[in-house]
Design goal:
Length: 280
């Protein structure tokens, strides 16, 4: 009875904390969009300098939000292979299990560009910050591929979620070929990042107040980069090469997710592998 009561109180506090986090993110984001980001743009001598400053500020804000959620006891996380994110000009491709995946990765990736919803361009509070940050609206067709390729060719890294939306828990990954088409158009190295949240939290179709019975743990693993010459040898036509690369990424993510979940269900080992920590 006592353990059940503790569990109910813990779940209730995490439900309240999650709601508070959403309020802080929404209100704080709006305030920053009309104060800090415009000031950074005004004091910057040119567009490139403004973009670097706004991206640095955005990265810091995302890190503070993750710190806030962790401090409230809403989640824990571990990071592997973080040093691979530091190299610029990579196409960083990640699976998308939760609502805060982009928050994690915009915090962890230096100078990251990102494909975001076109609806943000119609939001009066967020329109200019995403433009100043150099983000790309998720339009359809070759225009999006060309915009992404130009960003990569400028030396910045680009974050893409090839699923296009969050994964439905228990369903196989369904990757679209847009990320592969960007890779082929830019000939950038592809860096896969596997995200696992156990138990599931803030997934597609769930509500913010539907918190799991225990605190969710995020495992973010940065894989080995896939050099352009390995996926674009010229032996395949462009559509077939895009399909082949998409299949490779889907297999990589599926195996990575299964490995983390299987390891979590095994008995604890005496000497667990070293886990890399990130600093705000």
């Amino acid at each position: 009875m006592e353990s059940r009561l503790r569990g109910m109180l813990d779940r209730g506090s995490r439900r309240f904390g999650t709601g508070l986090s959403f309020v802080v993110f929404g209100v704080g984001g709006t305030l920053l969009s009309i104060t800090l980001f415009p000031v950074l743009r005004l004091i910057s001598p040119n567009r490139a300098v403004a973009q670097r400053r706004i991206n640095a500020a955005m990265r810091r804000v995302m890190g503070l939000f993750i710190w806030f959620m962790r401090s409230l006891g809403l989640l824990t996380y571990e990071l592997h292979g973080l040093e691979r994110l530091a190299r610029p000009g990579q196409l960083i491709v990640a699976n998308h299990p939760t609502l805060i995946d982009v928050v994690f990765l915009l915090w962890l990736i230096p100078e990251a560009g990102c494909v975001v919803k076109r609806a943000l361009w119609r939001n009066p509070a967020l329109r200019w910050p995403v433009i100043w940050a150099g983000y790309i609206p998720n339009s359809e067709g070759p225009e999006l591929v060309q915009d992404c390729a130009r960003l990569l060719e400028s030396g910045r890294s680009l974050l893409v979620f090839p699923e296009g939306t969050r994964t439905v828990p228990g369903q196989p990954l369904l990757l679209k070929r847009g990320a592969a088409q960007v890779a082929l158009a830019s000939r950038a190295d592809v860096l896969p990042v596997t995200i696992v949240c156990d138990p599931p939290f803030l997934t597609k179709g769930s509500h913010w107040y539907q918190v799991p019975a225990r605190r969710p743990h995020f495992t973010i693993t940065v894989g080995q980069p896939l050099p352009a010459q390995r996926y674009d040898s010229g032996a395949l036509s462009h559509p077939l090469a895009a399909r082949d690369l998409t299949a490779q990424l889907a297999t990589h993510f599926t195996r990575g997710i299964d490995a983390v979940l299987n390891a979590a269900r095994e008995p604890l080992v005496t000497n667990p592998p070293e886990v890399q920590s990130a600093r705000l």
